[in-house]
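Thread: adenosine-5'-triphosphate complex, take 2
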Amino acid sequence: MIEVRSLTRRYGSVVAVDELTFDVAPGVVTAFLGRNGAGKSTTLRMLLGLDRPTGGTARVDGRAYADLPAPLHAVGALLDSSAPHPGRTGRDHLRWLAASNRIPSRRVADVLRLVDLSADAGRRVRGYSLGMRQRLGIAAALLGDPPVLLLDEPTNGLDPEGIRWLRGFLRDLAAEGRTVVVSSHLMGEVGLTADHLLVVGRGRLLADMPLAEFVAGQGGPRLRVRTPEPERLAGVLRATGAEVDLAGGALAVGGIAERRLGEVAARHGIPLLELRRDGARSLEDAFLALTAPVPTAAPREEVARP
Ligand SMILES: Nc1ncnc2c1ncn2[C@@H]1O[C@H](COP(=O)(O)OP(=O)(O)OP(=O)(O)O)[C@@H](O)[C@H]1O
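Output below.
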């Protein structure tokens, strides 16, 4: 469980984090989303005792990080700054971390296996790809078997297969009852597979809600359809009450399920060349609209909560 109350961090005249208040529950994946510079890393650093709040509190299991008796057993973190020494092997890096935190060295083999890095553990980190470094960082975060995991932009450097692996991995960790927070500046990378969203913009909380609610707020997914008869299909779909935009020969359709759309087209003898959900795209658009820079500060009452 994470509790953040009125958390604020100023750097001179820059307000990096502005009166943030939220809780993060265990057992689900929470995406911490915001554009570059929104204050995500600063918030995570304060949760980890690496930066001092100007005001407010950030607690893990009821305590400030500095007061945790065994921090690595309480919180695992992946931050850019925790880069391993390039001349060490992945295994040695983890052994060194384990030894300096009184964690039995047999745990090293376990976490290497968990992140699928056993085969490369004997290689020096300088030869690792970005994706392998991220896996090593995640292995380090898991060393103390912590109930809370904070991962800052863990998809950096991962290819699409690596991102898919990470999504499944995070879900499994949450299913074990852990509190999993993963930050990203892109909605699509983790937000779409998270259970809960925390969205920040210019240091302030813009949304704190289940993903399902965010999706519902956007009117459900849009469908993308291609047909040799776009005008005619648009006409029959509009007659059912669906919203249709015609763009470059393709149709973007809202307010109708895929199956029903297929049935309507078949009934009118209109062939479909393509029919797919365009959900990711419209949600990324909604995320960008929500976090769009505004010339004046938004009033605090605008925080969207369930
Ligand atoms: N040590 C620092 N000194 C001065 N300003 C800082 C410092 N750290 C962060 N900032 C400023 O605070 C704001 C928030 O930065 P932060 O790194 O927390 O954002 P972020 O959401 O993590 O962004 P990104 O997605 O780019 O990592 C930015 O304006 C940044 O320039």
